[in-house]
Amino acid sequence: MGLRRGVLKFNIPYVVADTDRHGNVRLYYWRKGRPKIRLRAEPGSVAFAAEIEAAKVASDAAAPKSAREIAPASFRALCLDYFASANFRMLDKNTQRQNRLILEDVSRSKTPKAGQERGALPYALIEPRHVEEIRDEKFELPGAANNRVKALRRLFKWAVKAKKPGARNPAAEVDYLKMPGDGFETWSAAHIDQFEAAHPIGTQARLCLALLLYTGVRRSDVVKLGPQHERDGWLHFTEAKGSRKAGATPKVRDIPIIDPLREILDASRAITGPFAYLVTERGVPFTVNGFGNKFQDWVKAAGLPVGLAAHGLRKAAATLVAEGGASDRQLMALFGWETEKEANRYTKRASRKKLAGHAAPLLGFKR
Questions:
Q1: Residue 202, number of CB atoms within 10 A of its CB
Q2: I need a surface site. Which of 109, 182, 302, 318 has the fewest CB within 10 A?
Q3: Which CA distances in Å does 19 have to 8, 9, 23, 25, 92?
């Protein structure tokens, strides 16, 4: 909206006061040819001075630029600075890749009304409502929507600590979308039986199922497990999750090789690699993403619902162990969880099922 007649001049360069139809005075930082930037703090206060400095940066970023030039205070410029920072480089490689892809995607995306590319906009003007817009563009995929919020929280948290001009963390005020559980369906006994019927012992698919179900490891670990990790009837290995993060302490895991797993490992020697149980047709270990694609091929071949994931077998393993009477601490040791929160989800559910089983006969009590 352009300035109207009767606009009050303020005694600070480029600061103007505009009176709305209700008589309320609103202060703005405004330079011709650039957007007006609202100033909300009390005039004369420290916060007001800080707002003006942030507005100057934002206004300069919004000035007409060459199409190829990256405005120094733009969202895209902030992302590039973040990617070059030690804070970003200390993240593990997978997290770096995911965050970079998300933030680059957000930079290329456009605002719903004006159709402006978000990367060209001043980062200092991004508010919680804008983050909500960015999140809600992926509302059909709650996990992807929440990953956008998470990546933006990391970015702006770094920007605040790095004392970037006008930086604050609008993403910290935005809630995650609610998700059903953790988004992965738990494999049922019927799912497992159907998979086993389609993939007999001696196949890569059956070996994969056994490794996931009888160890409860993540897919980032199952692709690395091999004969070299066997020690006196145990699998001894370092968890992949977090191990590539700079400064992180590697988490060493020990999982017993129970009889059903031992049987399938012994029957699968002809198809395993020297340093990885699961190998591609070329005889090399799977990448994490390559494994995910191959696992879906095995799921489809078994006639199971598309989308049943390897992580669902980890959940199935945790469910079986919890229903067998394992404690929170035992679950934490077996599945590598740091806190009781995740383990407690399974033990509580198992306890409810047990109590319901004891109480159900009372439904037939004759009055």
A1: 13
A2: 182
A3: 8, 11, 6, 4, 52
What six digits make up the tokens of 156? 């702006």
Tokens of 231: 């020690």
Cα distances from 132 to residues 35, 156, 307, 324, in angstroms, run 22, 15, 27, 43
Check if the beta carbon of residue 234 is closer than 8 Å to that of residue 215. Answer: no
- Rg of the chain in Å (alpha carbons): 28
**Percent of the residues in the chain that have a pLDDT greater than 70, as a whole number:** 85
Residue 330 has pLDDT above 50, yes or no: yes
pTM, rounded to two decimals: 0.54
Phi, psi of 355 (to 5 degrees): -65, -40
Q: Give bridge partners of residue 18 from the DSSP assignment.
A: 26
Mean pLDDT over the full length of the chain: 84
| Model pLDDT for residues 247-256, shown as the tens digit of each residue | 566 788 888 8
Please tell me the distance from the alpha carbon of residue 8 to that of residue 17, in angstroms, as a whole number: 5
Domains of the chain and any CATH numbers: 8-61 (no CATH), 75-173 (1.10.150), 189-358 (1.10.443.10)
